[in-house]
Amino acid sequence: DEKIIFNKLTQENVIKIVNVHVDNFINDMKEKDLTVQVKKDLINKIAKEGFSEEFGAREVIRAIREFVQKPLSHHILLEKSTKKVIIMDWSESKKETTIVMKDLKAKTKE
To answer: Which of 5, 8, 88, 92 is 20 to 30 Å from 81 at the Cα level?
Structure first.
């Protein structure tokens, strides 16, 4: 029998894992004609909440659900226009995900 040794995940490893999952979510939203941006502070929050010494990065998906998918779903239900860029970030002072919507830049031919 061979022994397999696993190295502990670093914070950098966890952030890379979070970025892969968040990028997949953003691409899923693009397919639904939604433009979503997730800022670095929110990525870091997800990495912090989605990692533990005991379970590694197993909770990353749950953290993305809690800090990205749920707040975005509630926001979309309340917002009438989705033809905007949805910018998501973490507010440490409010202890919540913040969402700002900006108009998409209209592409015009001259």
So the answer is: 92
